[in-house]
């Protein structure tokens, strides 16, 4: 109706003059020199009224920046997500000042648009550097070949994190007011992650000994103190998680700036002599107390959350120290310029003593911190330290001091100080010996993970998967729109192009009844249509025989080729439409369904949002009704959160896993499976509690196989963690992947 509603320029001018004349009646005169040139065109809604105190109301809207109003009386919807209240009065003299009112709006709109530009710019910049990173990996560049590109990316990402971080600190209030805070924070975190490229990630997979030179590791020199940042596990592309090693060489008579950690405790270990720490007490921004403690070699120092402290060197030689930061601690450091409110400070600091283990003359100092164990290994002169690894096991050590000679059974190596020594065991490389033939100690730092996920992930990254199994909701979809994320769609089509079968398995039905659509339930067909459209647009319909959709928790498996369905052996008619209605009617007659949402599917039914008080009653009533219908032994009742789902007996997502194994003649461990309900009893537990099972949501910490991707990657739950993992895994087409006889083999 735009053409009908649109007015001519002449009518627009007449309308503006009518508004001016109307306002004059009430004593309002518009300033001629206002900054905002758009205040009076038809995109703005201007209104004069009075509240009970006679206060005038003025409202202005902007297509993207929301609406601005002079009192809280008017609350327009107009598709705007937020409003900002601005006084029409000059707060200094109490008089109405429209010039000031519109100036304020102009400045807020300008800030909104400048932030919008900043967001779009750094989305583009960070996507460019991330794409460059994965291109280097996929092109199999080694550490030295990728060095120039990595330096370029590091500088850009670090600069982006500084600019975005400053914007967050300086304009925090305005960003919250404009609903732009979350977007800027996400970009800030992404910039910090991308700036932490793990050099070891570019190592080859072949067994042997690798020496990573100092110039290949990220270094910084704040206030003249040398810092190095790295990780000692190869499988992680960015040491944004789960841990980061910060190694520093503190010059004589040097003190760091006062700093602390917002959410986590800190542990720093002295590797030399002369180290001390100071902790401080503050009142009204002034230091009112401090404690200074000497720290001997191989002793740690611990600090509570938000404890202001610093580390210094009182010796006449540089003092080395190492800090291990785990997950949130990697990013939550603050100094006095950006510290939390003084009321949140804590004053917890103390020495931390290690457990000491002696083996021959080699001494190890062990420190425990959250989910990591830190080991300081000292090898005296004329002694050796032997490392025995199992097949495919890996071990990284950082050389702090000394001139060791390393023998791996085939070659000798003489690494310099401040290098990483990395061992990958294989058929002929399982024992590695570090000899100290010098007259001073060799000092090494190692990190072991208590968290099982990363250990399993290291093995998984060496595997070659031949098929991909994916849950839908909160795995490939946006958590708000419930539709597939475009980047995920592109990535999955790339995988299909490599002749890798992809199967989706979901509790969704294949196509939803109209009454369920009204209640907001989604079906698989939306995902199907997305894929079909994209493959047709790209002239890649030949990939359709590799795409499968398993609905209703694995009960039905569909393909896009001629609407073909595969039998799973599940008695689908057990919960046909008639039986579903009989069960629901029995529940409704008992008055227990007032707050419950019913999702009727083709072969199953869901009862959503059951109140805690009615849960047992509804379940007992269902069991009673199923028994009377002689269906109790033919139906599975599954609890998920505050909902109950009824499926034909034997229905579970493993049916889709079994289908891929049978159809493509592959082994279970050759299928990578992703889900978000990995907790014990969760819908996805059965497909994730196995080698090749990846949770991007909840997780069974007692599982020997399931990998908790958000924990080891630092990525958000859901599709962010999925994309991170798919970029790392290796896929190879199954030998049986022949398009022409794909359907015949299934039969």
Shape: globular
* Percent in helix: 25-40%
Number of helices: 17
Radius of gyration based on Cα positions: 32 Å
Flag low-confidence runs: 32-55, 514-520
Commentary on this structure:
With 747 residues, the chain is α+β, with helices and mostly antiparallel strands. It folds into 4 domains: 31-195, no CATH class; 199-450, Jelly Rolls (Sandwich); 460-569 and 651-731, Rossmann fold (3-Layer(aba) Sandwich), CATH 3.40.50; 572-648, Hypothetical Protein Ta0175, Chain: A, domain 2 (Alpha-Beta Complex). The protein contains 17 helices and 40 strands. It has an 8-stranded mixed β-sheet, with helices on both faces. A hairpin with a 4-residue loop joins β30 (547-551) and β31 (556-559). α3 (98-138) runs antiparallel to α4. It starts with a helix and ends with a helix. Mean pLDDT is 84; it is low at 32-55 and 514-520.
